[in-house]
Amino acid sequence: MKIVIAPDSFKESLTALEVAHAIEAGFKQVFPDAKYVKIPMADGGEGTVQALVDATKGNIVRTSVKGPLHAQVDSFYGILGDGETAVIEMAAASGLHLIDESEKDAKLTCSYGTGQLINDALDKGIRKFVIGLGGSATNDGGAGMLTALGAVLTDSNGKQIPAGGIHLHRLNHIDQTNIHPQLSRATFLVACDVSNPLCGDYGASAVFGSQKGASKTDIAELDKNLLHFGQKLEAVSKKTIVNFSGSGAAGGMGASLLAICNAQLQSGIELVTSTLDLADKVKNADLVITGEGRIDGQSVFGKTPVGVAKVAKQHDCAVIAISGSVTDDYDVVFQHGIDAVFPIISEPCSLSEALAKGAINIKRTAFNIANTLKLNN
């Protein structure tokens, strides 16, 4: 019997690999001779670097970069087991969690640190990149990232403009003369689960600006500035940027990646399943087990369990999901390839207790699922 175990992390409790280990341990008590294939998963957001590194036996690179407000922060990215591909979570360098609530200011935050991570990987000979665009604190259109990569953004007097989206209206010229020489040889796949354009009512500033500390007045100005920046990007790249679906992701980071890095934007879970070649690994499987911390009505919109189920069903595999909890509307996932869902909490407890006992509860739940399946053998 071949069992593929492909869960996401249980946030604040276990990594995806730790979840997979716990599921395997529970099943092995009942089916010790089964073939287990563990594939840590993610959906392109937090945990993607760790999941892909674990799944491919790669390694984490730790370094210090400029955070969203220019202070040095400890950051990281992953190099996959092929030694050729870097995985970067934008949030690791330019994330909202890196600044205090009182410091949020979408006018001034900058994506420079994300560019530093790309630089570091390029200097190590990496030419393939997977970039996750979630949880950013920025609204600078990726201008900071471009600066870190060597581009010079100048005003009409030839002076470099200051960092932050509030200054983008001053941009007159994007000079790529000194951009990293290996950038043009690199390929970028970008995990992007929003379809927002760069500007307008559904653009980066209007939709996401307030959570990054922008007032209504700020949002109007930032939106106008991003339009100006986007038009400059279109001029140098000869591409449609401003209205391109996803160009508004991560405060407009999608725009710069499209224009200067020639990136391809993809659904996060589809990018991960493709990178890990999940379709090939579920061939001839008797069962696929997936899961995440919570399964609810939103799980059908690009979340890991449904993404895994979509691939599994292409090979007629049964799919069971294990979750920390479920909500009243969780059963919608049954319309999207998941055959059964099992929450792991067995008794009333606090959130901290549930997080602490994650591995124990997952192992016990997997053991009970396996025993149930054995009844039909």
Task: Explain how this protein is built.
The strands form three sheets. The chain has a six-stranded mixed β-sheet with strand order 3-4-5-6-9-10, with helices on both faces. α7 runs parallel beside α8 (249-260). α1 links the parallel β1 and β2. With 377 residues, it is of the alpha/beta class. Helix content is 34%, strand content 19%. It is built from 13 helices and 13 strands.
Observed structural traits:
377 residues; alpha/beta; Rossmann fold; Glycerate kinase, domain 2; 2 domains; six-stranded mixed sheet; five-stranded parallel sheet; 13 helices; 19% strand; elongated; Glyc_kinase_flavodox-like_fold; kinase; transferase; glycerate kinase activity
Sequence-ordered SSE layout with sheet pairings:
Blueprint: E1 2-5, H1 16-28, E2 35-38, H2 48-56, E3 59-66, E4 72-79, E5 85-89, H3 91-94, H4 112-123, E6 128-132, H5 143-148, E7 152-154, E8 173-175, E9 187-191, H6 204-208, H7 216-237, H8 249-260, E10 264-266, H9 268-275, H10 278-281, E11 287-295, H11 304-313, E12 318-326, E13 340-343, H12 351-356, H13 358-374
